[in-house]
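Entry:
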Amino acid sequence: MYQQMIFVNLPVNDLDASKKFFTELGYSINPQFSDEKAASVVISDTIVAMLLTKPFYATFTKKEIADATTTSEVLVCLSAESREKVDELVDKAIAAGGTASGETQDHGFMYGRAFDDLDGHTWEIMWMDPAAVQG
């Protein structure tokens, strides 16, 4: 059965630093789709973050590239299998040079935290009680 994938393309200032950041979070780099202009960060079997140098990113759009440290264009939200995994990933991101973003969201059945990566892109990590989804 076909599984649709998502490729999140993000402009970065320092490709090597960004690769190091995401590998410190436990993700891998797919060398088949990486070079000096781009890195393919494998988040899951169906989610890939493509980190592109700003000049390379600019070849895909005629729009101005947003400065994610001052402007929000997108919030990337990833699910986690537990509250503990939310905390683990966000804490790893902060230890690797990212910054905490916003307040912890605790609604009992749903728990989330967020961080900004080295370039200011906001990543939300969220857990939702499976029973809440089914009900």
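Residues 64 and 101 are 24 Å apart (CA to CA).
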